[in-house]
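Hi everyone, sorry if this is the wrong subforum. Our group has a chain we'd like a structural model of before ordering constructs, and none of us has done structure prediction before. Sequence below.
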Amino acid sequence: MFHLSRRAVLLGAAAALAPRFAWAEVDNEDAWFNGTITDHGVTFRATNMGMVPAVFRKQLVHYQHNQRAGTIVIDTNANFLYLALENNQAIRYGVGVGREGFQWFGEARIDRKAEWPGWTPPPEMLKRQPDLPKYMPGGADNPLGARALYLYRDGKDLGYRIHGTTEPWTIGWDVSSGCIRMLDEDVIDLYGRAPIGTKVVVMERVS
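Answer:
Right subforum, don't worry. Here is the predicted structure as tokens:
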């Protein structure tokens, strides 16, 4: 059974509803966490990886591609993010992607990175959800999670980020307003592998 909790309104607002998954919110949230991790002075709840479907856990895979090593490729159909490596290999992560009406595709570049980023909801989101805070400082309860990689095109901020999440049960679902969300542990890992200037390719969705 799924429900919309008060916590979901406050902390899951950055993602909102997914048509195929009424709310990526579960009754027993605590089951998705196991202990804590302290990172750069912030203590956050560690993901219980046993709750994450094996296909969406970080893993080294064979991946046929024609991208330069270090390129990030996001498969919005399968909810995978690939970090391309040499010899047709990649590190694959499970991700949450944009819900219907908020999907996008094309090329971008990481032009900014932040650890424990603050969150400023965009004006269009505030219009849809006027109860949201105008700004939320970075920390363990911030919807952007432990890291954010900011996506630009031709020097312009697209408004989309690759970021962590306080809701690990949403990985593998179409849940966001266009951002790419990852487990906090995974986005910390990717953050260390993807420097400023990294090319990002978001594949077009196939109906």
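For your construct planning: The mean pLDDT is 87. The chain is about 10% helix and 35% strand.
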